[in-house]
Amino acid sequence: MTSSTWTLSWAGATDQGKVRTQNQDYFHIDTEGRFLILADGMGGHSGGEIASQRTVLAVKATLEGIDWKNPPSPQVFAQICIAAAIDSLRLWVEEHLEQHDMGTTLVVWIRVRDKVVLFSLGDSRIYLLRDGGLFQLTFDQIIESELRRRGATRNQAARSPGAAYLSRCVMANRSCEPDVMEVEIKQGDLWLLCSDGLTREVEDIDIREALSTFNSHGAQVCAQKLIERALENGGRDNVTVVAARFE
Description:
CATH class of the domain at 22-193: Alpha Beta
Low-confidence stretches: none
Helix content: 25-40%
Mean pLDDT: 92
Radius of gyration: 17 Å
Distance between the termini: 11 Å
CATH superfamily of the domain at 22-193: PPM-type phosphatase domain
CATH architecture of the domain at 22-193: 4-Layer Sandwich
Number of helices: 8
Shape: globular
Number of strands: 13
């Protein structure tokens, strides 16, 4: 778990929720603490479940093949990972045409020396708890948010057709530009990757409160507390969280 002077503690948890008939979320935590991946699938029947799993496994395989002594730029990291995910979905859809419209969100966290590379597609999120403040670092890529980003008012965006639909995601039949960023590591940084099953049920102030238990109770208790909070508030969607802290 140690790279350079940093030690990373982590844990992940997922739950089907109280309404859904299957869990279409999927996540992976690299055992060496180099990367974290989370996806929230969409598509009828088993399409979403397959999309999220195939996407995460494709990204995992790509990152495991990286020359970590000579890592690529953040943009290249994102490009090769998303291309691998799209190829994986395309291969599946070629043999299962009825699932041609399946897709998934994707958030990826990669540690590169003393920095963290982040990229995202969709409305799954990455948060950073630093010095007591909780920061949402990813942008929800839904139609409403994209319109507001381009200057529309809150009311205009909210009333637009398909306002709640994803504007960008991983699909077999299209390629979307991810949001990519790089953040310097700081002692005590606490990271959270989550699906919207958490953020639709739990306010940021309560997310911050649950994350604050990481130091006293550890990673797994922290992750489970976030899941429990989402279920207590309705649990209307699958909910998945991955929490990690630098020391």
